[in-house]
Amino acid sequence: MAGIKYDDMSVEFLDFSAVSSRFKDNQIDAGFVVAGVPTSALMDLTTTKNVGLLNFDKETLDTIIKANPFFVPNVIPAGTYKGIDEDVNTPSVMALLITSDNVSEEIIYNFTKTLFENISDVQGSHAMARNIKLETATVGLTAPLHPGAAKYYKEAGINVD
User: Fold this and answer.
1) 111: Cβ–Cβ under 8 A, 6 or more apart, which residues?
2) Is the bond preceding 73 in cis, omega lying within 30 degrees of 0?
3) Domain architecture of the chain: domains with CATH
4) Which helix (H) or strand (E) holds 92?
5) Along the 161 residues of the chain, how does pLDDT read in single tens digits?
6) Model confidence, pTM
7) What is the Cα–Cα distance from 58 to 55, expressed in whole angstroms?
């Protein structure tokens, strides 16, 4: 995929801060960061180092998503990071709320309903929360939906099949 094989890399599993720090110190050539945009570690990195973000073409994104349905297409807007002057197409993962199947349908239904009926309050609490939308609540979902959430989504007109 994209002409790069896992065996072509020397892989280290680092947190965002370590990726930024190691990149600044020329100890790594690239990093794979799964985080909300903007990410402070990348903001810091781009203020001290010229970096580029990998812009995926549609064919490569489609291949990645077909093989890994938890990925969804996303765009990092131009200007999000210093030196990144064009929109960047990238695979992304959706944030998930996870619960036990032992929690009652009523509790999860009420939680889900309350969340979406008050989504503007949630969206006002964090920049990334603006991406929480009822119409995308099941996009990229690879785990089974709790029956309580499924009930609310069905009532709201969201396809859960």
Assistant:
1) 148
2) no
3) 6-93 (3.40.190.10), 105-155 (no CATH)
4) strand 88-93
5) 567 788 888 888 998 888 888 988 999 988 888 888 888 888 888 998 999 999 999 999 999 999 998 899 999 999 999 999 999 999 998 888 899 999 999 999 999 999 999 999 988 887 778 888 999 999 888 889 999 999 999 999 999 98
6) 0.75
7) 10
